[in-house]
Amino acid sequence: MIILVMGLPGSGKTYLSQKLHPLLDAAWYNADRVRSMANDWDFSKEGRIRQANRMKVFADFEKKNKRFVVCDFVCPTKETRKAFGPDILIWMDTIDKGRYEDTNKLFEAPQNVEFHVRTWNEENHKEIAEEILKNV
């Protein structure tokens, strides 16, 4: 199962993923680490699609091997989310603006999400993991 934790930079994606993945016994891919491995810091429209596709390769590998996988990255547009194709979408909607104006301008709020996190607390990851495991 592919789980995408998405939202603006600074919304808590990595923190939630760090807490969530051990509860699901899941692999975890962080976008900054994946970009670093690829040495690809292109944040143009094409670069963002390329990153979504790159993250998808890792996620598909884990899913093919019957593992849960948590991927955290901004995934700012409908097009990047479609390219990535998560089974479960968690939107970290905890801030109004991220630290990068170009990302703020192109960010499109997702319409259909399985989990919409509006406020951060120390129980979110437990509640989300419990709900995911209950419905598998």
Characterize the structure shown.
The chain is α/β, with parallel strands linked by helices and 136 residues long. The protein is built from 6 helices and 5 strands. It has helices at residues 13-24, 31-38, 45-64, 78-84, 101-106, 124-134, and strands at 2-6, 27-30, 69-72, 88-92, 115-117. The longest helix is centred in the middle third of the chain and has 20 residues, at 45-64.
Outline of the structure:
By secondary structure, the protein is of the alpha/beta class. The protein is built from six helices and five strands, in the order βαβααβαβαβα. The chain starts with a strand and ends with a helix.
Low-confidence stretches: none
Order of helices and strands: EHEHHEHEHEH
How much beta, percentage-wise?
15-25%
Radius of gyration: 14 Å
- State the separation between the terminal residues, measured CA to CA: 9 Å
Overall mean pLDDT: 96
**Fraction of residues in H or I helices:** 40-55%
Class from secondary-structure proportions? alpha/beta
Biggest β-sheet: strands ordered side by side in the sheet: 2-3-1-4-5
Summed up, the helix count is: 6
Query: Tally of extended strands?
Result: 5
Largest sheet: 5 strands, parallel
CA-based shape:
globular
